[in-house]
Amino acid sequence: MLEGAGGNIGVLTGPDGTVLIDDQFAALSAKIKTALKTINEQAVKFVINTHYHEDHTSGNENFGTDGAVIVAQENSRKRMSVDQVMELFKSTQKAAPPAALPKITFKESVTLHLNGQTLDVFHVNNAHTDGDVIINFKALNIFHAGDVFVRYGLPFIDVDHGGTIDGMISANKLLIAMLNDSSVIIPGHGDLAKKKDVEDFVKMMQIIRDRVYKGMASGKTLEQINATDPTKEFKEGMERKVFVKLVYDSLKEKVSKT
Ligand SMILES: [Zn+2]
């Protein structure tokens, strides 16, 4: 795993070439290449994007131009192809140039076989975005979860672009079902993790989700729910009120159905 200014990069090297999981910001590509050279001289053959966000994909153009084949879930490619307005951050992620776009896309899953390893790449629905994947390095019992699992506290859920709290919870539950006590999980951001860390992350999201849902079902407004401080015992990552709004917005449809 390589750490830097953006999302964690997973690296698999060997005689068949290097595979990167995510590639951070374009300005860091040279540094990443130098770091990779200390591990292995092989060129980067594949880049797998865990989702479309620029702190995970902006190196695509540099690696793509060098000949790497970029792989992503089809919704991520769609999002990278056009400008994405990030209202929450008052910013816009610009459409990526052709060289930066994934050349291979898939709906549900794809498997890579190289360097004596099998990498299962599978889509989890409407979690952090609408195009998230988790990568399972099968023989190594290592997983890269992208931003479906992060360690900075209350997580960002990109509700404007298909993310939902319930999708975050179910994706992490799916991941947990594949883990044992020796599994290593590379989070989208933060230190390497163990099964217990993912379990704690799910528990936190479930508790907050249930509090917000209960408030909504009893007719409370977002302001009234925030007044009960539903995230109180948990570490702030996203600002508390912003996180509660993301949970609230992603549950609206469910509450109106009941
Ligand atoms: Zn992200």
> Treating each run of at least 4 consecutive H or I residues as one helix, how many helices?
8
Low-confidence stretches: none
Gyration radius, in Å:
18 Å
> Helices and strands: which structural class?
alpha/beta
Ligands bound to this protein structure:
zinc ion
Please provide the ordered H/E string of secondary-structure elements: EEHEHHEHEEEEEEEHEHHH
Q: What is the distance, rounded to the nearest whole angstrom, between the alpha carbons of the first and last residues?
A: 44 Å
Largest sheet: 5 strands, mixed
Work out the strand percent: 15-25%
Give the helix proportion (percent range): 25-40%
- Average residue pLDDT: 96
Spatial strand order of the main sheet: 1-2-3-4-7
DSSP summary, beta strand count: 12
What overall form do the CA principal axes indicate?
globular
Descriptive notes:
This protein has 258 residues and is α/β, with parallel strands linked by helices. It has eight helices and twelve strands. It has helices at 29-39, 54-57, 60-65, 74-81, 165-177, 195-217, 222-227, 240-257, and strands spanning 10-12, 18-21, 44-48, 69-73, 84-86, 91-93, 104-106, 109-114, 117-123, 133-137, 142-144, 184-186. The strands form three sheets. A five-stranded mixed beta sheet has the order 1-2-3-4-7. The protein is globular. The structure holds zinc ion.
